[in-house]
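ping. complex inputs:
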Amino acid sequence: MADKVVLDSDSVNRTISRIVNQILERNNGAADVVIIGIRTRGVHIATRIANEIEKLEGIRPEMGTLDITLYRDDLRQKTEWPKVERTEVPFDLDDKKVILVDDVIFTGRTTRAAIEAIMDFGRPSSIQVVTLIDRGHRELPIQPDYTGLKLNTLSSETVRVHLKEADGKDEVVVVKQ
Amino acid sequence: MAFERKHILGLEELNAEEITLVLDTAESMREVSDRDVKKVPALRGVTVCNLFFEPSTRTRSSFEIAEKRLSADVLNFTTIHSSVVKGETLLDTARNLEAMGASMIVIRHPMSGAPWLLAKELNSSIINAGDGWHEHPSQGLLDLFTIRRLKGRIEGLKVAIVGDILHSRVARSDIWGFTKLGAEVRVVGPPTLIPKYIEHINAKAYYNLEDAIDGADVVIMLRIQKERQDSEFFPSLREYSRFYGLTREKLRGAAKDVTVMHPGPINRGVELSSDIADGAEAVILEQVSNGIAVRMAMFYLVASARRTS
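pong. complex structure:
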């Protein structure tokens, strides 16, 4: 078993800054932009994106948190059901540009569940997907709009995103089993 | 921690950790009711049957809304319309519902213990919606949930339950729930309506209302069934109301931030004066709203346990 560091602390920060600039460029600023993070690592990245947007544009986009447990498509197959955590989207999503943030995109099933959940909150004008790592192996026709780093991985490998807020340091590691 | 119970029959058999998991899950479920589309797909394809052998509007509706918010298919079965009047046994009725594809059965029955019989004999998950004088776990859980949200804790609170303790399944579930989470529970009512065994389940018996609510953080008023007023339990409704009806004046001895609860339906002017029922201390309608989130949590956790076993 060998761990390979694919992003270190500085590159994590630079990557997020680049994504923020791409978001602002594509949306002509931050008007009507709201940020929603998928629990748990996505929320930390979403918060950083919101902070940077505030620094650059002077307005802080509204921030929400999504727990997709109740929307999972594998509940009927799963042997152990996850604990349902809080979802908090305390604002109107109608006609908003939703930036949906997750740490890793893999099969695309989490993103699908999150999109369905967002639709139940209202009718946003668009949903744009941000992911720090795209590790391939999609099972659904879903692609991120903003990608930090695209990796070629084996299904047997695990991608671990460590963030200061949860793990004490910023680092992305590929773990071979 | 994973929930490992296929059924939720009573709070007596749940431990503090399991109760807390239900309350935590209910916190997450609460938000679904605030959305534009008040529905999540978690129980898609699951058929839930509400089997009610007693009239109930509130509890049955609350269960039904909870089932629908989780996208379950709902089958309502009430005795007035059913073949029970033709002499079918409880077990046969329930087996038929199971044969129609129900995998969860919510049952209310006038006989204590009826849900246990179904749990023993059927493959479905059974949720007790009130059995005889015994337990009403979803009401107990929603009372705990409402108080935990308001006060941030259950441990150390003084809880007074007032009224007809003898016939009350709400009282029993509340006593189990609140004591397991570390509250001090007092029960108060006419001696004829306080069962002797009540101290064995860690509730302290009082016969004077002012004594019982002295310093209380929570006062739970039970409904007096008017149809019992001609029975031998107390001389008259007026006398009952004078001694055990909650008024502003009697509430004065309670804690400053006292919360008043009632499982409904209220008899205004009997167990509860209108100024209390509509006052700032009363959370009767919050109890009703919270009931939906708590029942959603019960379904989710029971469904998860079915999967594991």
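The beta strands of chain B are 47-52, 73-78, 104-109, 125-131, 158-162, 184-188, 203-206, 218-221, 259-261.
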